[in-house]
Amino acid sequence: MIEVKEVEEPRRIPIIGSIGGMYTVFKHLFKKPVTVQYPEEKENQGDRFRFRIYLSTDDCVGCTLCEQVCPNLTITMVSLDKENPRNKRKIYPAVNFGTCTVCRNCEEICPTDAIYLKDVFETSRTKNSFFYSPTELEKNEDEVRR
Amino acid sequence: MNLLTRIALILGFLGHYPAYILAYIIETLIVLIFAVVVVAGMVYFFRKYMARVQMRIGPNRVGKYGVLQVMADGLKLIQKESIMPQGRDDLPYKVAPLIIFIALIMGFVFIPYGPLAWLGTLTVTHSDVSLVIMFALIAIMPIGELLSGIVSNNKYAVLGSLRGVAKDISFEVPMMLSVLAIVMMASATKGISPLDLNGIVQAQNIPFAILEPLGFFVFLISMAARASYSPFDMGESDSELVTGNTTEYSGLRFGMFYLGLFGTIFLGSMILSTMYLGGYNGPFVDDLGFIWLLIKTMVIVVISLTIWLSMPRVRIDKFVTFGWKYLLPISFINLILTGFLVLGGIS
Q1: Rounded to two decimals, what is the model's pTM?
Q2: Quick one: residue B86, left, alpha or beta (phi over 0 = left, psi -120 to 50 = alpha)?
Q3: Residue A32 has what DSSP assignment?
Q4: Which residues of A touch B53 (CB under 8 A)?
Q5: Across residues B262-277, what is the average pLDDT?
Q6: Integer Cα distance of B109 and B134 in angstroms
Q7: Is B325 on the interface with A (CB under 8 A)?
Q8: How far apart are CA B193 and CA B212, in angstroms?
Q9: A41 at the B interface (CB within 8 A)?
Q10: Which helix (H) or strand (E) holds B328?
Q11: Does the interface predicted TM-score (ipTM) exceed 0.85?
Q12: Collapsing DSSP states into helix, strand and coil, what is residue B330?
């Protein structure tokens, strides 16, 4: 048999607990707000923060490893008419940032380091047009916007 | 010298009677503007205070530090279409928000504001029974709440107003008993009309909050329940009953309920500081009386808002139990203690 001990609850005086709660709430009045006013001020990112996928089409060999390793079909291979002796099939990855989870598998698996990620997170597009073609993946955000 | 005669003196070139008639109109306008500005300021203050307590920034886009946010909200509410439910009882539906708002604005007339520097005393009316009128006006407000609930043909609204009525009857008896103790205390002082709020202020050489802390406690809780904010917002209870009695209201009519809530907090704090904290009494009364009243009111407002932001909603049956089993005996004890104090001649 397991003995069930009845634990006596400490005697609570009414109101006192409420006043304690009120004091805790009031104390926070003098703390600094944690809100970041986004467009005007930006929060410091960590050193290893990455979001935007870049591609150098000169290095890409069209091995489709990034497409195979991508967990949610974010990367699809598209054909691009560009003279590259190492890329005979002329296929390059295109990225849909709407579904990208930034798992960085593509960066890890790429044999020639053609795909790499940078800490840019303000992508230039909105509303269902997150699809970046290989030529757009090469450029910076400012150039893509133009 | 009071505000009315001061304005009449300025307008003296018009002759005696026109000057006084104009002065009456201007004074009325001043009170109306004061009430509306104070209520709007109360909304801004609440939003800013709540934000800072929750470590946010609060409204800061419209105007400097977001001061004009309330005006922007008001404009939005005015522009909005007022959608009315089918099967409503039309007249009470439209009258209900007006009852609350007008009773609130009229409440501001009877507060003794005290003197302020060159202007003289700012107190608007002199009535021998201003206390009775004030609590009559406070007692009118629940009627607006009840009407808005039962008339708008919505089950949530009916439930909300029923809860509101259950809340109102359980705190109003203790509230009036604690007011009775105040009147007893004030009547012990010679040459003062004890039913006049101004007389009650003059009777407080020692603030009544020190002499009857129990009454202060009961009255603070009653005023919180009257304004029906968070621990006692079972009439509104937005997580259970949508928004209770105001569910079917939109546009400016909803705005009136909203302003009524915040105005009641400020008015309640003003009554509390008038009756228990000595009103406009303080050092340099003749110059700074109004400022003292405002400071005391703001302290009570901050306490009220802290109560609002720190406590969860009380269940309706628990509040009714609290009202009848605790507040009522406490206010009776307070009454008896006050009787002893008055007999002993301490006040």
Answers
A1: 0.81
A2: beta
A3: P
A4: 25-26, 28-29
A5: 90
A6: 9
A7: no
A8: 20
A9: no
A10: helix B328-344
A11: no
A12: helix
